[in-house]
Each structure stands twice: as C-alpha cells, then as structure tokens.
Design a protein that fits this description.
Layout: E1 8-12, E2 25-26, E3 39-44, E4 47-53, H1 68-77, E5 82-91, E6 101-102, E7 106-110, E8 124-125, H2 137-147, E9 152-153, E10 157-161, H3 169-177, E11 182-184, H4 187-196, E12 200-210, H5 225-249, E13 266-267
Parallel strand pairs: 1-4, 1-5, 5-12, 6-9, 7-10, 10-11
Antiparallel strand pairs: 2-3, 3-4, 5-11, 6-12, 8-13
Length: about 270
C-alpha cells in the first residue's frame, strides 16, 4: 500500500526522537524481531520519508541492545532506498569541535558480539568494505550543510566502541594517536547492514563533546552534561534543517554502486 511506502529513511540518534508532528505510524514486523520503535511516515518536498528513533523514542535501548538488523530490514520493507544515519558523537581531535558535523568516510569497528550481517548462509556473501558510505549521499550532505551555514568536516574516520561505557583515557588516547576523528557507539553495524540491503547510507556525526583523551589540551575544556545537552539541542535543530534540505536535493534515481552492492559478492 502506498501509504506504507517511503523513499527515504532517517534513523534518529540520541536526542533526535522525532521528525514529523502528528504523522501516521506503522508497526513493521521483521524476521529479526522488533525494530527499535514504530516507524513514522511523512513527506518532505513531495518525497515520502520514514523516521525511526534508533534508541526508541524514550531512549530505552542502549547501543549494544539495538536490533540493527530489524531496523534496516524495516526500512527496506517500506521501500526505502536512501538512509540517513545521524548520531551523537564525541571528538578525538582538537580541531573537530562540539557543535560541528562530520560526514564520515571511514569507520573502525571496535564492537563485540553484535549481529552484524544478514549473510548467515547458506549463500556466502562478502560485500566490499573499502568505501562504506554512499558516494552520492556523502557529497550531498557536505554541500547542503555548507549551503545552510552549518560547520561541517567533509570526511573523517569514526571508531565505534561497544558501550554502554565510555572509553578509558588510555583507549581514547590510542584512538586519537591513530588519527581518527570521531567516536560513537552505534554506527556499526548499521552502515554495513544498509550495504548488504543495497541501500544508500550516509553517516552524519553530531559532535557533542571532546572524548577524554583530548581533555587537557590547550583550549579544550572538560565536558559537562549540561554542555552536552545544549549542544545536542542546537545540533538537532540544525539536523532537521539539513535532513529536509538534503531530501529536497536528492536525485530522482539511485545511480551509485550501493544499489548493486551484492553483484559479484555472493559465492554461488
């Protein structure tokens, strides 16, 4: 049914629990169990958009308990081709400041035990991980943010930790010395599951604070919860504007390699 279909999916991160006011919701059943919450279906610039809060609308799901496979299956079942994956994140480098956005181009997975593939057999599948984010959506996000005057870094590596605890100082310093820019708990396996579903996916990291390995640098202040909450609110307002402007500028058709990611990936 058309009213249960969408072109674009938005999976909201911490503090970003709604995109539409008063829009209809649908409950999606999947072979992998329940998604994080009901999916809200709305419209932006004539394009149907599905919104799902990653942690649930009351933030009841910690990062390691999110049913990532059910969430991505739900998006695919609704007809979604484009997926925006905003998330709250910390900075590992002094030049990446709270209040700025990073459109990541690489990730490092430091999680353990997460259900991170649909390819459980009997057909063995090896998708490419070289460039894990959509080559169409990444530049679109960067260009749109700049048009809106949002401070944005056009690339960066995000290291995904298991959570729910934060890093030790030693771990954080190690990540920083590798040159990685962003730290987060949810981007993996979300991005690779999207690729296995042949969906276009972009990570939009909202920098809310400096990680503990950066604190103590000149000009870097230790973060407080009040400061984080303030930055998140400012970022969420910007994020809504960015999402809406990106949807308005989306191509009519998907022409990137994401749509054919399984071609040649299966051992048959």
């Amino acid at each position: 049914m058309a009213e249960r279909q969408a072109e674009v999916g938005v999976i909201g991160g911490s503090g970003f629990y709604s995109l539409f006011e008063g829009a209809p919701e649908v409950k999606v059943d999947t072979p992998y169990g329940e998604p994080s919450d009901a999916v809200t279906l709305g419209e932006i610039a004539g394009r149907r958009v599905a919104f799902l809060p990653r942690h649930g609308r009351t933030h009841r799901l910690p990062p390691h308990r999110i049913n990532y496979r059910a969430n991505m299956w739900a998006m695919k079942s609704l007809g979604v081709g484009w997926v925006f994956g905003p998330c709250a994140a910390g900075s590992l480098q002094p030049h990446v400041r709270p209040g700025e956005f990073v459109i990541c181009d690489q990730f490092v997975d430091r999680t353990t035990g997460r259900a991170d593939t649909f390819a459980d057999g009997p057909i063995v599948t090896h998708i490419s991980g070289a460039d894990p984010y959509c080559p169409t959506l990444r530049p679109l996000a960067v260009e749109t943010a700049r048009r809106l005057g949002i401070p944005v870094h056009e690339r960066g590596t995000v290291v995904i930790i298991q959570g729910p605890r934060f890093s030790t100082r030693a771990e954080s310093r190690w990540f920083r010395t590798q040159g990685w820019e962003v730290i987060n708990m949810t981007n993996y396996p979300e991005c690779v599951l999207a690729r296995e579903m042949e969906l276009c996916y972009v990570n939009i990291s909202l920098i809310t604070d400096y990680d503990v390995g950066v604190e103590g640098d000149p000009g870097v202040q230790a973060v407080t919860q009040a400061a984080v909450a303030q930055v998140m609110q400012q970022n969420n307002d910007r994020l809504r504007r960015l999402v809406r402007a990106m949807v308005e500028r989306l191509p009519q058709r998907r022409a990137c390699s994401c749509a054919t990611a399984l071609a040649g990936a299966r051992v048959e």
